[in-house]
Amino acid sequence: MIASPDRTPLPRNFFDRPILEVAPDLLGRILVRNTPDGPIALRLTEVEAYDGQNDPGSHAYRGRTPRNDVMFGPPGHVYVYFTYGMWFCMNLVCGPEGRASAVLLRAGEIIEGAELARTRRQSARNDKELAKGPARLATALGVDRALNGTDACTSEDTPLRILTGAPVPGEQVRNGPRTGVAGEGGVHPWRYWVADDPTVSPYRAHVPRKRRS
């Protein structure tokens, strides 16, 4: 747990910057999920940057679609997608409106509302695993496509808010290839994490799916 984090919302101009500036700067920030059962707060410990039409690994690489529309702005909104037919993952939109880029929230430490998160993540062996990976993070927070497009830069009592928290010093930030990204996008070292933090997910390289004969 972090000591005396700043609970003020991050301003929109925090996100209106180049994606590779925003991504590492999100480490240590606090994401608050307000639910009918109570709030859950998470300290971000691992993220990945996706640079839209400049990035073969991005959902927006081939242009705008109904699925990725939120990625094109405005910044500071939540982009939620469904993957593998069973999991949701969440991102925070960055950069100027009209230019798609987003940061995938890969892992974090639950610092408030752990009891509620445990009810959603009953397979977790301990609290460090509650949000250890992007699908686990979304599951622990109760995030689905209904929250796609939510404005996270607000002081109002909204479903999702991103707070200032306590930024991680640069010497504690590590970076490397993104998890499970294939092809040209697989070489970008755009995954950022807090060094030696037990909530960070393990790196896995892309493994091509075998076709059934």
From TrEMBL:
For this protein, the record's CDD domains field holds: AAG
Region of interest called Disordered, as start-end residue ranges on this chain: 167-186
Q: What class of enzyme is it?
A: hydrolase
Q: Some GO term, biological process aspect, for this entry: which one?
A: base-excision repair
Question: So what EC number does this one have?
Answer: 3.2.2.-
Which Pfam family is one of this chain's hits?
Answer: Pur_DNA_glyco
Can you provide one Gene Ontology molecular function annotated for this UniProt record?
A: alkylbase DNA N-glycosylase activity
Alphabetically list the UniProt keywords: DNA damage, DNA repair, Glycosidase, Hydrolase
Q: InterPro entries this protein is in?
A: Formyl_transferase-like_C_sf, MPG, MPG_sf
SUPFAM superfamilies this protein is in?
A: FMT C-terminal domain-like
Q: Which family does it belong to?
A: Belongs to the DNA glycosylase MPG family.
The protein's name:
Putative 3-methyladenine DNA glycosylase
